[in-house]
Automatic annotation (TrEMBL):
Similarity annotation: Belongs to the LysR transcriptional regulatory family.
Matching InterPro entries: LysR-type_TF_proteobact-type, LysR_HTH_N, LysR_subst-bd, WH-like_DNA-bd_sf, WH_DNA-bd_sf
Every HTH lysR-type domain range: 5-62
Biological process, per Gene Ontology: DNA-templated transcription
Database matches in PROSITE patterns: HTH_LYSR
Name this protein carries in UniProt: LysR family transcriptional regulator
């Protein structure tokens, strides 16, 4: 039934399509770039269509290549999943999770001990970066946790947490008087193009625009640094309810004017379609969903 399937050529094409380079595919599969080129040409001859548009500088997928790649990628993932299911239950398994440094340190890592306790055989490795990883090209990443305003239609999506932005301070923080300017901790927050997340927007909504004229701003580039400054007592911070949740739960920070909220994104678990069915990905995704439900319930 499958005797005529060009499996080696299919694997070479999938790697080249995902990585966008014959050279990169050759390195991944431990063959020469010429071998990848030969495999792709043989697959093109087998199918009777051109899968790549070639130039002297690079290669890019043709329309037929774009149509074939996601189907082939899912099929190979299913094969890999089936083989992994035959591994002994006690065998160590790894899971690579991509997310931002702020989400990793402020939300995920404080909870990760619970996952290690439940699934000691799964080795979770965090890939933290503010750069968005192309999951369709980087197969080393199993799943990502992202704050999104517009979901990527090419990826599987599992909603996790709804975000909004509010002002937070130490429990003993006192609002400014006429003689003392307010200290505002400032950090660049990302939001949708139609809604700014900054102190002028918050103050306008809160009815305190006069704060801005005399405010002392404490500026930071990283979210976790801004929250630490607020915990120490350096002023009022405008922060994501998701990232500030642990500090609030520990009583280190409280909401100031909690009725004033600025729109945020939706945190979601995303992966290449098909990977959500893999055992380790499914277990971690379900655990994340349970943790998110407990966080929203205040536990």
């Amino acid at each position: 039934m499958f005797a005529k399937l060009p499996l080696t050529a299919l694997r070479g094409f999938e790697s080249a399509a995902r990585l966008g380079s014959f050279k990169a595919a050759a390195q991944e599969l431990h063959v020469s770039p010429a071998a990848i080129s030969h495999q792709v040409k043989s697959l093109e001859a087998f199918l009777g269509v051109r899968l790549f548009e070639r130039s002297s500088q690079n290669v890019r997928l043709s329309a037929d290549g774009e149509r074939l790649h996601p189907q082939l990628h899912r099929a190979l993932l299913d094969i890999q999943h089936g083989l992994q299911a035959l591994s002994p239950p006690c065998a160590s398994q790894s899971l690579v999770v991509s997310t931002t440094p702020a989400f990793a340190s402020l939300w995920l890592i404080p909870r990760l001990g619970d996952f290690h306790r439940l699934y000691p055989e799964i080795d979770v490795r965090l890939h933290s970066s503010n750069e968005v990883v192309d999951l369709l090209r980087d197969a080393s990443i199993d799943l990502a946790i992202r704050a999104q305003f517009t979901p990527d239609p090419q990826l599987f999506q599992q909603p996790l947490l709804e975000e909004f932005f509010g002002a937070y301070c130490r429990p003993d923080w006192q609002p400014p008087t006429a003689d003392s300017p307010v200290e505002l901790i400032d950090v660049p927050w990302l939001s949708s193009s139609s809604a700014a997340v900054d102190w002028p927007t918050w103050c306008a909504k809160a009815g305190t625009p006069d704060w801005l004229g005399t405010a002392r701003f404490r500026r930071y580039d990283e979210e976790q640094h801004a929250l630490q400054a607020a915990i120490i007592g350096h002023g009022l911070v405008l922060a994501s309810n998701v990232l500030v949740a642990e500090a609030v739960a520990r009583g280190q920070l409280v909401g100031y004017r909690p009725d004033i909220r600025l729109a945020g994104a939706r945190y979601s678990v995303v992966c290449v379609p098909g990977r959500e069915r893999q055992s380790v990905v499914h277990r971690f995704s379900e655990w994340l969903r349970e943790q998110a439900l407990m966080a929203q319930a205040g536990h």
